[in-house]
Write a structure and sequence with these properties.
Blueprint (H helix, E strand, L loop, with lengths): L1 H21 L10 E6 L14 H17 L4 E7 L28 H11 L3 E6 L15 H17 L4 E4 L9 H4 L3 H22 L4 E4 L5 H6 L4 H4 L8 E2 L9 E3 L2 E3 L1 H12 L7 E4 L13 H4 L3 H11 L4 E4 L11 H11 L1 E4 L3 E5 L3 E3 L2 E4 L8 E4 L5 E3 L4 E4 L3 E9 L2 E10 L12
Parallel strand pairs: 1-2, 1-10, 2-3, 3-4, 4-5, 5-6, 9-10, 12-19
Antiparallel strand pairs: 7-8, 11-14, 13-17, 15-18, 16-17, 18-19
């Protein structure tokens, strides 16, 4: 009897251990998606409001080069901010934020932007505000004509442009209009869900690999208040391919005067909601870096907020992040925060991990650092100088038979190449002719 109980207990413990390996909390996250938002309010500062196509191309090229150099691989680019378009549309007016002295460009900005994003290997997601017309006016989510208008623009974009996805942000039912305040929460969510499903199905009918994602506000209660049914999106199929909750707080937030680890708390909440394990990337508030904010003093007190949040992301079964927004990557007030962020995602690669060579021979090791903004001096070191030496330029000279490790250092990162050294090749004696 005792033996049987012991065996049963052992089986339960083994099963529990195996189950833990499969469980969501046991999985490590990644930075597979390293995104950044480019908003309509940044067009002017990055030089996109120009009549000259040549100048537009030059500035677009610089924009995406800088994004790539900052370690990003995905761009969420504003194409519809206020029921408008940044391309020649048959149904929607030109975005006023792209106009130059009121004049629309004579070329197709969106086509050029996508081409340069792809040139640098970046994914391009067309970012849309579905309902907003002005800051005070929105399209009524309850009307079928509203949904049809949104879907028609989605269809226009995916039929005409080689985008990698369609992306919605956090603007749904407004909170500042009395007529919408009378609509019950359940009805709001039903109306928004109907639109989201239509968009999702429209995208998948075009191409199954096309992505559709939404970036809701970081407060789940607020999401539901404005009609964003995030619990359904993350538990049922047919709504989104990915989700980017905007967790725009530090871990030094003052809630009712008490210091609160707000980022960690909100992150844990979103993890618990993700029943279907939808790819989840975390929206990070780079725009707050270095700013003095009364309710959230952490952004001024520390320059490691983003770097620490990346640690949480990697430890918490999330697949990446998105930074808001592009210009903050180069803002002087955020410089320290950006430097620590770049150090966190920096990687070092060697062209060889192993090498076999004879004593007396040389070979060159090459090291590459990414992202491009992390370019630092590479330092080299041999584990045994009697067996092999290495120069400042990575040239290894094998001296004595044996095994040695050659290290490349960049900041706190190091990589190793194991060198196996054979004996010198004996020279053949020349035979004398008689």
């Amino acid at each position: 009897m005792v033996k049987r109980l012991f065996l049963m207990l052992a089986v339960i413990l083994i099963a529990g251990t195996l189950g833990l390996g499969e469980g969501k909390k046991a999985q490590a996250g990644s930075y597979s998606v390293r995104g950044v938002w480019v908003s309509c309010f940044e067009y002017k500062s990055v030089g996109l409001c120009t009549k000259s196509e040549k100048q537009f191309r030059a500035n677009a090229n610089k924009l995406f080069y800088n994004i790539k150099a900052s370690g990003c691989n995905t761009v969420y680019f504003h194409v519809r901010a206020f029921d408008d378009a940044i391309y020649p549309s048959s149904s929607f007016p030109w975005s006023k934020y792209l106009l130059n002295k009121g004049a629309a460009p004579s070329f197709d900005p969106l086509k050029i932007l996508i081409s340069y994003a792809h040139k640098y290997g970046l994914q391009f997601h067309a970012w849309m505000n579905p309902y907003r017309v002005t800051y005070k006016k929105v399209l009524d989510p309850a009307k079928a004509s509203t949904t049809e208008r949104i879907v028609s623009q989605v269809r226009e974009i995916i039929n005409r442009y080689s985008v990698d996805g369609i992306h919605f942000d956090d603007y749904f039912y407004p909170t500042n209009e009395k007529k919408y305040n009378k609509v019950k929460k359940e009805k709001r969510m039903a109306n928004i869900n109907a639109m989201v499903m239509r968009v999702y199905n429209t995208i998948k009918a075009k191409k199954k690999k096309l992505q559709f994602g939404i970036s809701p506000a970081g407060d789940v209660s607020y999401c539901e208040k404005i009609g964003a049914d995030v619990k359904t999106w993350m538990s049922k199929k047919g709504y989104v391919d990915y989700i980017i909750p905007q967790i725009y707080w530090s871990n030094n937030y003052l809630l009712h005067g008490k210091k609160t680890a707000m980022f960690d708390e909100r992150f844990a909440k979103w993890q618990s909601l993700n029943k279907r394990d939808v790819p989840m990337y975390i929206g990070l508030a780079l725009y707050k870096a270095g700013e003095r904010l009364k309710p959230d003093p952490g952004w001024k007190k520390s320059s490691y907020n983003i770097a620490t949040q990346l640690d949480r992301i990697k430890a918490g079964n999330s697949e990446g992040y998105a930074l808001f927004s592009y210009t903050d990557l180069y803002r002087s007030g955020a410089a320290k925060e950006v430097r620590h962020y770049l150090s966190k995602i920096m990687s070092l690669k060697l062209n060889k991990k192993k090498k076999t060579i004879r004593a007396g021979k040389k070979f060159k090791l090459k090291a590459s650092v990414s992202p491009l903004r992390c370019q630092k001096k590479i330092k080299w070191k041999s584990s045994n100088k009697k067996k092999a030496t290495v120069t400042k330029k990575g040239v290894v000279k094998a001296k004595k038979k044996g095994k040695v490790k050659i290290y490349a250092y960049c900041g706190s990162i190091k990589k190793c190449c194991v060198v196996k050294i054979g004996a010198k090749k004996k020279k053949k004696k020349k035979s004398r002719k008689k």
